[in-house]
Write a structure and sequence with these properties.
Blueprint (H helix, E strand, L loop, with lengths): L10 H24 L12 H20 L6 H15 L3 H17 L7 H8 L9 H9 L9 H11 L1
Length: 161
């Protein structure tokens, strides 16, 4: 099958790769921060990317080849490389730093270090968390059966980006 594009750089490979990166960008922080399970993206070999790639190569692509629309080797390589690069950004490169940072000055602030007054004067209120209990639970954990106030957290995250 002759492919169009430059070294597997086709629109469908870019779309499939982008969809896989978006999936891993959601699944990896969930697995790391909520499930507190295996790091599926923040390791030397991101097993999340490897798993998605193996499902694609062993399960999905053979079915596509039967329909004469299977991905070529170079397209599969492009999708895998996109997942390798994109998988680590939402965990170790971004999410694990952003979420604690938007509340750290309030949690670690004391009268001695004056973080609350110093940083609060320079950080707009919409860029940080305001609920003291949500901040405490973010750092210390939740009581059994309780759930984190995601609404407070989601208000600050888009602006922190």
């Amino acid at each position: 099958m002759e492919e169009k594009g430059w070294f597997g750089l086709t629109w469908r490979a870019l779309l499939i790769g982008s969809a896989c990166v978006i999936f891993l960008s959601i699944a990896a922080p969930f697995a790391d921060l909520v499930l507190v399970g295996t790091w599926i993206a923040g390791a030397h070999l991101p097993i999340g990317a490897l798993f998605v790639f193996l499902v694609m190569v062993v399960g999905i692509n053979p079915l596509l080849k039967v329909m004469k629309v299977g991905l070529s080797k170079s397209e599969l390589l492009l999708v895998y490389c996109m997942m390798l690069v994109g998988a680590g950004i939402p965990v170790t490169g971004f999410t694990e730093y952003l979420i604690p940072t938007i509340a750290s000055h309030q949690y670690y602030g004391t009268p001695a270090n004056k973080w609350i007054t110093t940083f609060s004067a320079n950080i707009p209120s919409w860029l940080t968390l305001s609920d003291k209990e949500a901040i405490r639970q973010l750092y210390e954990g939740l009581p059994n059966g309780a759930s984190l106030n995601f609404i407070q957290l989601m208000k600050a995250i888009p602006w922190g980006v």
